[in-house]
Every structure is written in structure tokens, then in C-alpha cells.
Amino acid sequence: MNENKLVGAWSLFSSVQSRNGIASKTFGDPPSGQIQYTNDGRMSAFLMDPCWKKEGVNASKQADLFFSYAGQWEVKGDEIHHFVEFCSAPSKIGTTFVRSIRFINENELELSTAPETSPSGNVYETKLIWKRFS
């Protein structure tokens, strides 16, 4: 894959999480967010439900409404690896987020997670559609 196709800023268009095969929209309808990839291998992502700003002082207790992280990125085959250095969820710092990459067209990008099983046995998958800022 040509990594240069990723470089730039992308706006979150769709955010869907599936739990045991049942899909639900996350981060609002429509969602709000931005992901950026730089030529020198840096990235940052911000995902926010538009209603998050209305939470005021209680916003920090609404982690499902806002999530951000940043670090380095690398493409490996049809996957992108985000090496998390900064994150709104401290437990994710130092981890790697692996996403499958699929270009829908020149200006639309799909990033999706592989199925993950929680300790309770639930299977989660997330699919994010991003549109390039013009």
C-alpha cells in the first residue's frame, strides 16, 4: 500500500461498534472526530460525541463520549499500527492499536479492529469511516 495516501487530515464520518454481532453507533449520530497522519510517522486521533461539550464539569466522567490519542504510525501490509504515546485513557499508553485499512475511494478510508473478546466473553469489533478534509 502507498503510505502517502494516508498522509493528511481526515474527518470522522461513521463510527460503529459491534457487540456480539449487534451494531450500534458510537461517538454520536453523526459522530465528530479527526485523525491526522504526518509524513514523518506521527499521528493523532480525536473522537467525540458532539454532545460531549454540553457535559461541562462532568465531561471527564463520560469517557464513552470522548477519546483521544497520539503517537507514531506504521503500515504493515493491509494494517496500520498506531503506537500510543499519549492517550485520554492512561491504561492505553504504551500499547499498539492495530487497524485494518481499506480505502473506499480516494477520499474515504475505513479503519477496523479485529474481533476482540472481553473478559466477560463479549466479542467487540469497531469500524470507523473517515473522509479526507478537502
Automatic annotation (TrEMBL):
InterPro entries, sorted: Lipocalin-like
Positions of the Lipocalin-like domain: 7-132
Superkingdom, taxonomy of origin: Bacteria
Pfam family, one: Lipocalin_5
UniProt name for this protein: Lipocalin-like domain-containing protein
Organism of this sequence: Amphritea japonica ATCC BAA-1530
